[in-house]
Amino acid sequence: MTYIIGLTGGIGSGKSTITELFAELGVPWVDADIIAHEVVKKGSPSLAKIIEHFGKHILLDNGELNRAALRELIFTNEKEKNWLNDLLHPIIRQEITTQLAAQTAPYTLFVAPLLIENNLTTLCDRVLVVDVAPATQLARATRRDHNNIKQIQRIMDAQVSREARLKWATEVINNDANLVENLLQLKQKVLELHRFYLQQAELKRVG
Ligand code: ATP
How many A from CA of 72 to the centre of ligand 1? Predict the structure, then answer.
C-alpha cells in the first residue's frame, strides 16, 4: 500500500510546479482536478444527471459540459451547489481512492487544490502545503490565466484562508521566491522532503 502525501495550496501557489519537481525524482501523483473533469466527461452517467437537472443549455456546442457556466451558476446558488456536490463528491472520492490504491510506489502525491475544503485530508498520511503570500498568488494566477485580478481574488476568497490551510500542514514548502533565481534551493527542499517521505513510508510499512 502506497503512503499518501496530500499536496495542496491556493490558486496559483505552485502545486503543479512542485509536483513536477517530485515527478523528476520518480514520484507518481494522482490529480483531483483531472479526476473531477473525468467523472463528468461526455457520455458519463454523472453528466447525464447534470443535464437532467439543469437542462441542455449547460452543455457547450460540442456536447461537453460548460464548466464555466456551471461554476457561475453554483457560485451564486447554494442550493444548486449542494445538489452538485452531493452528486459528484462521492463519485470523485471513490475514483481517487481507486487510483491511489493502484499505486505501487513507496509514496504517492495526491494533488488537490481543495484538499481541505472537501475533507480529502482523511485520505492522506501527511499534508504538504505549498505556501505563498496572497499577493504572489494574485500576480502569478493573473498572469498565467490572462485573467483579471478581481476574478482571481474571488476564487481566493472562496478557498480556505492561508492560515486555515497551514493548520492542516504536516510539511510546508514556501514558493514565494522566484523560480529563476531559486530553482536549486527549491529542488533541494523537494529532495529533503522526498527522503523524509520515503523514510516515513517505510516506517509505516514495517510498523
Ligand atoms: P492552480 O491551482 O491555479 O492550478 P498551481 O498551484 O498548480 O495553480 P502553478 O500552475 O504551479 O500553480 O503556478 C502558477 C503560475 O506561477 C504558473 O504560471 C507557474 O509557472 C508560475 N510559478 C510557480 N512557481 C513559481 C515561482 N517560484 N517563481 C515564478 N513563477 C512561478
Answer: 24
